[in-house]
TrEMBL record:
Belongs to the ATP-dependent AMP-binding enzyme family. Keywords: Ligase. Coiled coil: none annotated. It comes from Bradyrhizobium barranii. This is Acyl--CoA ligase. Residues 14-329 form the AMP-dependent synthetase/ligase domain. Transmembrane segments: none annotated. It comes from the Bacteria. One of its GO terms (molecular function) is ligase activity. SUPFAM superfamilies: Acetyl-CoA synthetase-like.
Length: 500
């Protein structure tokens, strides 16, 4: 009897490389990990990583987490993040990624919306106690049954995963590896509000393929991922790209330029994946002389409307690939030509690589009737972005929609026919990877007291930055903490205009 074709999962890709080269280097920690988390940096082969994944996977099963349940993860870009994601998948769990900049209120909302059964975190990241944040959020989430973390000084009631890694692996359960099964849940903010976005394995792999094929990443390459991993783009650009090329994944906790440069040179990284503005900054600093091992640079644009006006890439030995990010809806890439300028992006189906005839279709770009950019394809979770049912029409079937409206304003360039992205979605602000409704600023400013100011200023690196001023600065920080803002967003508040 013929067996139906089963698409691969992330763990399938990992085990393929494990069988081929078990003693090859697999994972490299940030050089400054001791400062960031208190752990010493690790270097792991595929065999060592597999042992750690097996131990964590068995522990999740022994802790009573049922197959297909949701496990929430809030971790920095370190080896522990990769091991936890792959271990959760091996145990048949679905991973919900929680950004490090999230507030207590958002953590609680995400845990409740996804009915998460467990949460994994780090004791401290950059001096902030994430273990306390997780415990407080878990106390308000009815579904949470298990809280665990890496690092020292964990609160009472939180299990230590460092102890799990120090023991021999237990017995895990058999899980059918099928790329159509749910793999992750990320979270987006749209005009309709907070939105969980589930994805299967094949969708994540499609995102990684779109980047790796467009950038022409070689098999066995050492990939430096310097992009926060707690999103679809972050997972696709780190985990998926690494597993597809079967090489080594070097991780960098964003951002320390000197540490990043030192790590690229010491670990002889051939591919750099980083926010596009950071990549352009590095490209202007004599990249060939300072980081000679690089052969590919992938720049991720959180503000894709800025690509067309960006500076030329002047490091021909390491071509730049622009990757346009549209929240959690999807992405597409376009490798720059010999002149170093961004290439025109045409509507319709696009392959990977884009300019190669007969290449596999990575997705489709379209202009919606609203004058906004739409996406469709294997990586695009159309059902998650379905428009809300009109009030009073609950019994009326809505016409099916086979694309996601990203909300980014766009138009067609008349001479060339190319898509021009002109503005981000209205009413939404982005500070790094943290997106929120602009109306939230009014509530935050009101809590700061009389005479206070809080606004979002355009920022070329992160989209926007929060800037504020208050007569009583200590009271302002206290008010923002009461509101639930993550300490990383509060600690930089200044008497004069400065980033929050």
């Amino acid at each position: 009897m013929n067996q139906p074709a089963v698409s691969p999962t992330l763990d399938t890709l990992f085990q393929r490389t494990l069988m081929r080269q078990p003693h090859a280097p697999a994972l490299l920690d940030p050089l400054n990990k001791a400062r960031v988390t208190g752990h010493q940096p690790r270097r792991m082969t595929y065999a060592e990583a597999d042992t750690a994944i097996e131990a964590l996977s068995a522990h999740f099963v022994e802790s009573g987490l049922p197959a297909n349940s949701v496990i929430a993860i809030q971790l920095p870009a370190t080896v522990e993040f990769v091991l936890t994601v792959l271990a959760a998948h091996r145990a048949g769990l679905v991973v919900a990624v929680l950004p490090l900049l999230w507030r207590h209120a958002e953590l609680t909302a995400a845990l409740n919306r996804t009915a998460a059964r467990a949460i994994v975190t780090m004791s401290k990241v950059d001096g902030v106690s994430y273990s306390d944040l997780a415990m407080h959020a878990a106390a308000e989430a009815f579904s949470i049954r298990y809280v665990c973390g890496f690092g020292a000084d964990l609160p009472e009631g939180m299990a230590s995963l460092d102890d799990v890694l120090a023991r021999p692996p237990g017995t895990t359960r058999a899980v059918i590896q099928d790329g159509r099964k749910a793999a992750m849940i990320s979270f987006d903010v749209t005009a309709e509000g907070f939105r969980p976005v589930p994805r299967p394995h094949f969708s994540l792999i499609a995102g990684g393929l779109a980047m790796s094929l467009e950038a022409d990443i070689k098999q066995g390459a050492t990939v430096m991922a310097a992009f926060t991993p707690m999103s679809f783009a972050g997972l696709a650009s780190s985990l998926a790209v690494w597993l597809l090329c079967g090489g080594t994944l070097a991780l960098h906790h964003p951002f320390e330029n000197d540490v990043l440069e030192q790590q690229i040179n010491e670990q002889e990284c051939e591919v750099l994946i980083a926010p596009a503005q950071l990549a352009l900054r590095l490209g202007d600093a004599d990249l060939a002389a300072r980081m000679p091992s690089l052969r590919n640079v992938i720049g991720l644009w959180r503000a894709p409307e800025q690509v067309a006006a960006s500076d030329a890439w002047i490091a021909p030995h390491a071509p730049l690939t622009d990757v346009y990010l549209f929240g959690e809806a999807g992405l597409f890439g376009a490798r720059r030509g010999e002149d170093g300028m961004p290439v025109a992006v045409m509507p319709g189906p696009h392959g990977a690589p884009r300019e190669q005839s007969g290449s596999s279709i990575a997705g489709e770009i379209l202009l919606t009737p609203r004058g906004t950019l739409g996406l469709r394809g294997a990586m695009v979770p159309i059902a998650a972005y379905a428009p809300p049912q009109p009030v009073g029409d609950t019994l009326t079937a809505q016409p099916p929609r086979d694309y996601v409206d990203t909300g980014y304003a766009a138009r067609l360039d008349r001479p060339s026919g190319a898509i021009c992205i002109t503005a981000p979605p209205s009413g939404i602000m982005a500070v790094g990877g943290y997106r929120f409704l602009s109306n939230d600023l009014q509530e935050w400013a009101r809590r700061l007291g009389q005479g206070a100011l809080l606004t979002a200023l355009p920022d070329r690196l992160s989209g926007h930055r929060l800037a504020g001023r208050a007569q009583d600065n200590a009271r302002a920080r206290e008010a923002l903490n009461e509101l639930g803002l993550n300490p990383l967003m509060v600690e930089a508040f200044r008497d004069r205009s400065g980033p929050v």
